[in-house]
Amino acid sequence: MTTPPSAAVGAAFLADGPADGLDLRLFGQFAGSWLLDCTEYDPDGSSTVRRGEWHFGYALGGHATTDVWVLPGVEHGVSVRFPDPSAGPGVWRSTWVGPGRHRVHTFLAARVGADIVLDGGDLRWTFFDIEPDSFRWRNEARQDDGVWRLVQSFRVWRRS
Q1: Most exposed residue of 9, 74, 110, 146, measured as fewest CB within 10 angstroms of its CB?
Q2: For the CA atoms of 152, 153, 158, 160, what is the dihedral angle to 10 degrees?
Q3: Which run of H or of E encompasses 10?
Q4: pLDDT confidence bin for 25, thresholds 50/70/90
């Protein structure tokens, strides 16, 4: 019997943990499954709240972390993140793909105080209020006047 293609891809993509000697704790601390409440903010001041989930793990032979977030009926997005010392000490590269909304975003990520900030130029994502079983996340977009506007925020808690 042959291995189904999806199982083979999963086995080749996912890893049990970080590769020997590689420090993936910045995003590896989130390994596991989480529930979230996503609030999306419209420019007119209205907002919509949806329940979703977020799953984090290791990938690519343990040289990266990956995560998938799901907002049912809206988006399934996937990120691949890895440390890149050539970009600076403690700097990671991160790419997010959201096929439901036809988006791809690239970032440089680093710890800023107690937060993790992903800088994509005109887009900024921040993990904050990080605790072992909960954290918050926000998505901000830079407007034409240079002011940051809150686009989304997540309240996230670990699945029990």
Answers
A1: 146
A2: -80
A3: helix 5-13
A4: very high
Token digits for 81? 């993140």
Q: Using CA atoms, how far apart are residues 38 and 98, in angstroms rounded to an integer?
A: 15
- 94, with CB counted inside 10 A (0-12, 13-18, 19+), is buried
Q: Who contacts 151 (Cβ-Cβ below 8 Å, separation ≥6)?
A: 40, 41, 139, 140, 141
* Owner of token pair 């990080």: 130
Q: How many domains does the chain have?
A: 1
Any idea what the CATH number is for the domain that residue 127 is in? 2.40.128.20
How many Å apart are CA 155 and CA 158, to the nearest integer? 11
- As a whole number of angstroms, the longest Cα–Cα distance in the chain is 60
The residues that bridge with 109 in the sheet, in sequence order, are 92, 118
Supply the range of the domain harboring residue 22: 5-158
pLDDT digit string, tens, across residues 50-93: 999 999 999 999 999 999 999 999 999 999 999 999 999 999 99
CA distance linking residue 26 with residue 83, whole number of Å: 9
Over the stretch 104-134, which tens digit does the pLDDT of each residue have? Answer: 999 999 999 999 999 999 999 999 999 999 9
